[in-house]
Amino acid sequence: MQTSFTAEQLADPHIAEADGILRKCVHCGFCTATCPTYVTLGNELDSPRGRIYLIKDMLENGRDADAEVVTHIDRCLSCLACTTTCPSGVDYMHLVDHARVHIEQTYRRPLFDRMIRATLAKVLPYPARFRAALKLAKLGRPFVGMLRAIEPLKPVASMLALAPSSIPARSPSSQPSVHPAVGEKHGRVVLLNGCAQPVLEPGINEAAIRLLTRLGIEVVVAKDEACCGALVHHMGREQESLAAARNNVDVWNREIDGGGLDAIIITASGCGTTIKDYGHMLRLDPAYADKAARVSALAMDVTEYLDTLDLPAPAKAAGLTVAYHSACSMQHGQKITRQPKALLAKAGFRVTEPREGHLCCGSAGTYNIMQPEISARLRDRKVANLTATGADLVATGNIGCITQIADRAGMPIVHTVELLDWAWGGPKPAGLPEPTLEAAE
Ligand code: SF4
Ligand code: SF4
């Protein structure tokens, strides 16, 4: 694609990067076929190619964002299916990241929109605030139907509807701690605690700690670690996301320089995509560029790391059929496709995959709150495809997908690491059917 930025515009490193990305696009449109919003809405401006044109036009003309651009960029899930499909290697992720920052800096959203976004940014990344908000949400649940009927309050209705009816107790695993290796020590890792996941599903990191320590890995939950910043990053709140990244870069560099680290383990693939991008996010900050690159180089999804270990034979053959739902941040953001399925098969599960596995389930961070209609259509499509597999349960590697699908799937949905922990000697995750006799033998 030809671009016509001026030399003055190109002096801005963000514009120079956008220019390089735009020039790679050859307008072929292959990406439209795998874009969930184009597939759902059928509008070129809701396709990757359409959004690329909108962003190019806005940036080249040095224009503030307008309502049209904001509408179509807001509808983008940042699922990155387009980056998997694109034959030209267009780095849509960094282009849309930049567009979101530009929108945040130049566009004044309607009052309710601003209020809801500010609330999400100030509550979700903080576990104590999030826990308190979930308790309050119970009081608001009877009003979901009424709120849904008022257009600007639809996101509030979605927030209340998504809140779980019961909140698990605080887990000691989410406190700063060192979990020693069982037996001979083969490695030392940091485990990201995260923000929403330890409140909603603390059992996920508990399973990861049990499994890793049993395999001889010391697991550290580092003091002063906080939210990875993904949530505010996808809202274009650049300074908040960079502050979150700097905090964790400092915390984990202390661990690297202290006891040494083999990996920084992440059990939520949405967070993993962002942490692997810290090196890029902080590349222009001389005080942090090298330290952030060091962190990104060590960041691994828990299945990526487990795949590097010499696993013994599983303690029990689980004998259940698992539909593996690959989160977009796993398959498109981090390009991790083989390891989770290989580990589940090694653990004794029959692994199946749904049709249209490349399409997003509509969770996408806060998308299911901010774009409830499109999100619900994608969720229902995903649930239908998962149900058609006839599997006993669903496994996935991202808390957002679990929250999005759980109530509708009609079968248990668990994190992949909970199944792996079970297969290698841990407790059976709640709600799973009994393995068949044949497989349990
Ligand atoms: S990130 Fe996903 S929703 Fe956004 S343009 Fe790409 S494929 Fe479409
Ligand atoms: S597939 Fe890639 S090159 Fe083709 S239109 Fe989409 S982004 Fe551009």
Quick gist of this model?
With 441 residues, the chain is of the alpha/beta class. Helices cover 51% and strands 8% of the residues.
Please write out the topology.
Elements: H1 7-10, H2 13-24, H3 36-41, H4 48-60, H5 67-74, H6 81-85, H7 92-106, H8 111-123, H9 127-140, H10 144-148, H11 154-162, E1 177-179, E2 187-191, H12 197-200, H13 203-214, E3 217-221, H14 230-233, H15 238-257, E4 263-266, H16 269-275, H17 278-281, H18 289-298, E5 299-301, H19 302-306, E6 321-324, H20 328-333, H21 338-346, E7 350-352, H22 367-370, H23 372-387, E8 393-396, H24 399-405, E9 413-415, H25 416-423, H26 437-440
Parallel strand pairs: 2-3, 2-4, 4-5, 6-7, 6-8, 8-9
Antiparallel strand pairs: 1-3
The chain binds iron/sulfur cluster (2 copies).
